[in-house]
Known about the structure:
CATH architecture of the largest domain: Roll
Shape: globular
Number of domains: 2
Helix content: 25-40%
Distance between the termini: 38 Å
Structural class: alpha+beta
Bound molecules: FE2/S2 (inorganic) cluster
Order of helices and strands: EEHEEEHHHHH
CATH class of the largest domain: Alpha Beta
Mean pLDDT: 98
Strand order of the largest sheet: 2-1-5-3-4
CATH superfamily of the largest domain: Beta-grasp domain
Amino acid sequence: MQVPINTRINQRSYELEVDARTTLLDLLREKLDLKSVHRGCEEGECGACTVLLNGKPVCSCLVLSPQINGAEVLTVEGLMKDGNMHPLMKAFVENYAMQCGYCTPGMVMTSYYLINTWDDFTEEDIRKGLEGNLCRCTGYTNIIRAIREAKKYKDAGYWW
Ligand code: FES
Ligand code: FES
């Protein structure tokens, strides 16, 4: 069944006809070519497909496209500004917070939410906040360092 939806994705408005069975993951990757949204387990376990839905992290593999009607979706592509990396992405690069990079877009989106939500946080808070995002390469240490550095950027006003 085709369903009409109105939605905003990465600050842009869309009127779309979607198959009611299409996941948000498939809509973003296959129809809208937003390839930062990675396909991992497709059962809500790995976090590789994480995007923000109305400002909160969700596994896009568990959301059906009609559910984004009237909603706002943000992916890593939407964090870019005038072709520049977001300060959070810069912190990930500067702190070598990735190896294969498969988990990275999901990590970035969850981290963006956490940094925007918390006034302050400990390493333990970060570990807990990231528990839905699995990384098989880095051991998480550099990811945690990157998040701490990104928070400093935010506190210094270098953020959007
Ligand atoms: S692909 Fe969605 S949680 Fe793994
Ligand atoms: S960098 Fe390879 S899974 Fe995280």
